[in-house]
Automatic annotation (TrEMBL):
Protein's UniProt name: Ubiquinol-cytochrome c reductase
Pfam families, sorted: EVE (PF01878)
SUPFAM superfamilies: PUA domain-like
Organism: Paracoccus kondratievae
Residues covered by the EVE domain: 2-134
Length: 141
């Protein structure tokens, strides 16, 4: 199973907003970066991702799950743009800030640490475990 990180500005769409969407989840639309789109094209149903609040907070706050694999983005006029649907799964016990991730030696190669602008990015198995460790685990919704 692959792991991911999804970034969203919390004043536009927050983890609370995703929780409010329930089991059906929400289309992860509006992505207009080829690398981020290509990451979504490889995602499989059931894969998990961290939910990261960008700009305001700059921290990983929760875990989401892919519920629908890549399909046309309903907000795009051009069919080359695709997205997945995700649903909220759990809160992290403690949010993990970008600054904290940058000071953790085991995360030195993490995409978030080296390219914090990419909106949908892969997370390695080892990075996933380190983040969960630093967060003190998860809290079910």
């Amino acid at each position: 199973m692959a792991y991911w990180l999804f970034k969203s500005e919390p004043d536009v769409f927050s983890f609370d907003d995703l929780i409010a969407r329930g089991e059906k989840g929400e289309e992860w639309d509006g992505v207009r970066n080829y690398q981020a789109r290509n990451n979504m094209r490889t995602m499989k149903k059931g894969e998990r991702g961290f939910f990261y609040h960008s700009n305001v907070g700059k921290e990983i706050v929760g875990i989401c799950e892919v519920v629908t694999e890549a399909h046309p983005d309903s907000t795009a006029d051009d069919p080359k743009w695709e997205c997945v649907d995700v649903r909220a799964v759990a809160w992290l016990e403690r949010p993990i800030s970008l600054d904290m991730a940058k000071t953790e030696p085991r995360l030195k190669d993490m995409v978030l640490v080296n390219n914090s602008r990419l909106s949908v990015q892969p997370v390695s198995d080892a990075e996933w475990q380190v983040i969960l460790e630093l967060a003190g685990g998860t809290r079910t919704l």
